[in-house]
Amino acid sequence: HFFTNVSSIPPWLNATGSNWESFHNLSGHHFGQRVDGLNRLKSYLHYFGYINGTSNFTDDFDDALKSAVETYQKNFNLNVTGSLDNHTVQQIIKPRCGVADIVNGTSAMNSGKSNATSSFLSIVAR
Amino acid sequence: YAFFPGEPRWPEGHYDLTYAFNPEENITDEIRGVFARAFDRWSKVTPLTFELSTSPNSADITIGFFNGEHGDGEPFDGILGTLAHAFSPPSGRFHLDAAESWVVDDDVNKSTSLAAIDLESVAVHEIGHLLGLGHSSVEESIMYPAITTRTRKVELQSDDIMGIQYLYGANPAGNNGSSTPSSGRETSDGGGALISSS
């Protein structure tokens, strides 16, 4: 749908939510829990390179998911908690580019930077 | 800034690139203008040039709007979610989700629609991928992976410019007042980086 005038966007387009809106329900959950819908979040994180493997993801908040969430939080400058806090979920549901952030465990976003670099920047900041 | 594995780029001697829309139908002059402006932003800071072609079969870059599965194994997901994707050089494939509410030629910030996406903002980002840039954690940069609705973000930032000038060098006619590029990569992973969706 192309719009040269923003006021011409029909209201029904507002009413159609993103596939990712359901991730709102995962807010507040953390490692060790079993929650309906976590398998879809794992698929999302797999799609963008944060979880290895193929399919048959479970609804368990396991080590793999915790690690993926931590990496995601580093890449998007969020507090690294490993849990699905509200800020992380809000970021996850934002519209985005379909190109993966990580492939084969390699990233040049924040999570791929060495601790030495982080320490250096921290010292400079102080 | 980051690159695709192996730092692929358009070869030296092939910096004058052509682009075409595929399919052509429904592509208005206003839409063509959006993409021309988006390409021009990258051209101003590099030796690269971009010229519209009417022949998708021979163009270096092909741009298409598609719904759902469209042949590359990366189906689009309807309104919002994934907005677009593009492939690393020298693929030249640039795909956008036809289901989005693309704002072509108006101030997207004025929109009351929760689904309005600024076309030029997404085009500038995806062209970065077509030229060899991966995603950046710098939130202000064009190559940051996410964009909110009703937001216009089209100006290249120093992070973007340093990345693209590492690959291609600066525009010999000047870099349009951009910040000075660094002599090397700032990232410390020592390798190449991020990856495309295929």
Which characteristics define this entry?
heterodimer; A: 126 residues; mainly alpha; 5 helices; 2 strands; 37% helix; disordered C terminus; B: 198 residues; alpha/beta; five-stranded mixed sheet; two-stranded parallel ribbon; 3 helices
What secondary-structure arrangement, pairings included, does this model have?
The complex is a heterodimer of chains A (126) and B (198).
Chain A (H helix, E strand, L loop, with lengths): L1 E2 L7 H5 L22 H10 L15 H13 L10 H7 L3 E2 L17 H11 L1
Chain B lengths: L15 E6 L7 H15 L5 E4 L8 E6 L15 E5 L6 E5 L3 E3 L12 E3 H13 L26 H11 L30
Parallel strand pairs in B: 1-2, 1-3, 3-5, 6-7
Antiparallel strand pairs in B: 4-5
Helix pairs in contact in B: 1-2
> Helix and strand succession of chain A?
EHHHHEH
The strand count of chain A comes to: 2
Q: Identify the overall geometry of chain B.
A: globular
- Low-confidence segments of chain A, given as residue ranges, are 116-126
Strand content of chain B: 15-25%
Structure, explained:
The complex is a heterodimer of chains A (126) and B (198). Chain A is mostly helical and 126 residues long. In chain A, 37% of the residues lie in helices and 3% in strands. Chain A is built from five helices and two strands. Chain A is globular, with a radius of gyration of 17 Å. The C terminus of chain A is likely disordered. With 198 residues, chain B is α/β, with parallel strands linked by helices. In chain B, a hairpin with a 6-residue loop joins strand 4 and strand 5. The two termini of chain B are 20 Å apart. At the A-B interface, strand 1, helix 1 and strand 2 of A face strand 4, strand 6 and helix 2 of B. Strand 1 of chain A pairs parallel with strand 6 of chain B, so a sheet runs across the interface.
